[in-house]
Amino acid sequence: MGKKAQKNTKSKIVSAAWKLFYEQGYDTTTVDDIILESGTSKGSFYHYFEGKDALLGSLAYLFDEKYEQLAEEISPDTNSIDALAFLNRELFEMIENRIDIDLLVKLYSTQLTTKGEKHLLDRNRVYYKLLRKIVSDGQQKGEITKESTVNDIVRLYALEERAVIYDWCLCNGEYSLREYGQKVIGIYLDSIRS
Predict the structure, then answer these.
(1) Each residue of 78-94: pLDDT tens digit?
(2) Looking at residue 84, what DSSP letter applies?
(3) Which domains does the chain have, with CATH numbers?
């Protein structure tokens, strides 16, 4: 099986799992439900995941799929600050409307206690690559300050996003993640504007 086919199979499994987790809850979703929804096989499922719990760490993968889609929607003429605001707004809307808050809490708690791979911090994720490209391009076009390095700007941007998501989870989603994120991230984006 080629890399693209493998990615598509894994993607189908992850997307189906998170859809079912949102619709019917994590505890009531079975591996068989995920296999049926994804149109894959039990062998494929267990090739990528040890079990249902292993899917909790796959949320970063789902986010990266969203970023790949969003990257295609950004025109090369779009101001870099506007591109970052767009990414944040769209991701937070997806989280608010498609990700069960209890699962998000579980993901964040596993990332805090894991001794292994911290998926959210993996600098090779599509997320970080896309952010670095936007910031680098923005610095070259004179839209983003050069007083900080690309990596420092991206690190703080990602930190702010995680902080807003964490606070939203602590508050049990009592406010709009998308709207509040735009305010908070907007303040940071104004601070890096040239």
Answers:
(1) 999 999 999 999 999 99
(2) H
(3) 1-49 (1.10.10.60), 56-192 (1.10.357.10)
